[in-house]
Amino acid sequence: MADGENLVVFASNLGAPRDPDWFRNLVARPDVTVEVGTERFAAHATPAAGTERERLYELFVARNPGTEEHQAKAGRPIPMVVLSKVA
């Protein structure tokens, strides 16, 4: 999901009780290359926390109806990861 100049991803793992492996990889190595369509760019991944995570979660659910079921099923706070372009 776009949030201004950033992209945000939802680490739901389809509502599984465990974070997806790709999320743990981003935490371990937050400097990544992102490909969206034909665009490719360097980015830095930062897990959102606190009120920022809540804001992003509400936006994500509003744009993707049904995903709140993943949160209810997971039994864990599902991470929201902000991918910020690196100049």
UniProtKB/TrEMBL annotation:
Question: Which InterPro entries does the record cross-reference, listed alphabetically?
Answer: F420H2_quin_Rdtase, Split_barrel_FMN-bd
Reaction catalyzed: oxidized coenzyme F420-(gamma-L-Glu)(n) + a quinol + H(+) = reduced coenzyme F420-(gamma-L-Glu)(n) + a quinone
Task: List membrane-spanning regions.
Answer: none
PANTHER family xrefs: F420H(2)-DEPENDENT QUINONE REDUCTASE RV1261C
* Family designation: Belongs to the F420H(2)-dependent quinone reductase family.
Name of the protein in question: Nitroreductase/quinone reductase family protein
Task: Give the classification, highest ranks.
Answer: Bacteria, Bacillati, Actinomycetota, Actinomycetes, Pseudonocardiales
